[in-house]
Amino acid sequence: MLKLIKLEWKKNNIGKYIRNAAILAVILYLFLFSFAFLGIANDPDTGVPDTAPGNETISPSIELFTSMSFLVFTGVMLASFIVSAYKNKTMNLMFSYPIKRQKILISQMLAVWIFNFTALVLTKLVIYGGILANSRFLESAFPIDFDMTGPGFYIQLIVKAMVIVTMGFIALFVGMAMKSSKATIITSFLLIFLTQANIGDLTMANNTVLPVILTIVSLAFAFLSVCRAETKDLT
């Protein structure tokens, strides 16, 4: 399986995605640095931060923007690695190999999942670490509400990253069903609105039940996508 995953990375020019993920991480860091220390979130009339409910401290904003970005990034990679292969009929060639279709599809899904999980965790660590380091010299517009010295911080960070990247399988299922890369990416955006939406004072971002439900649904859709691979007509 590891060889197949490495083959997928090589075939899809993973270096391009590494570069794009690094650029995305830098942009997110600069934006959140400006958000915290340069006052871009401040109301011009009152001079105090003007944020949505639940985002009065810095960590919800970090989680929001990193999750949004990498959920879409995951959708883009799934569309490129898998959905486009079905659409362009290149999957026919891959399925002609003496390897089970299910194993090939799982390797593609894992190639995307492992990359985005790693990239999201590293991006969060860089941003959290950078914000914390700068807070020692600059005054933050938002309270620093996280502690990077305890194991709980890292456990929570890893679990949240796993949930976000796994939700990309919902977008994959939709994209495969419609044989459309655009549908995969659009579904990723819809998932953002569903998981991060604010309705008045109600925010879905702090809902602990919804991510669990979406993770279970995502795994179910991933299972269905793999199960159908052996019999699904590629034409």
Walk me through the structure:
- A two-stranded antiparallel ribbon has the order 1-2.
- A hairpin with a 2-residue loop joins strand 1 and strand 2 (202-203).
- It has one domain (2-230).
- The protein is 71% helix and 2% strand.
- Helix 7 (168-178) packs antiparallel against helix 8.
- The chain has 9 helices and 2 strands, in the order H-H-H-H-H-H-H-H-E-E-H.
- It starts with a helix and ends in an 8-residue tail after the last helix.
- The chain has 235 residues and is mostly helical.
What brief labels describe this structure?
single chain, mainly alpha, 235 residues, 2 strands, 9 helices, two-stranded antiparallel sheet
Outline the low-pLDDT stretches.
Answer: none
Number of strands: 2
The N- to C-terminal Cα distance equals: 26 Å
Label the overall shape: elongated
| Estimated structural class | mainly alpha
How many distinct helices? 9
Roughly what fraction of the amino acids lie in strands? Answer: under 5%
Question: What is the mean pLDDT?
Answer: 81
Overall number of domains:
1
Give the helix/strand layout.
Blueprint: H1 2-11, H2 14-37, H3 58-87, H4 90-95, H5 101-134, H6 151-166, H7 168-178, H8 181-196, E1 198-199, E2 202-203, H9 209-227
Antiparallel strand pairs: 1-2
Question: What is this entry, summarized?
Answer:
The chain has one domain.
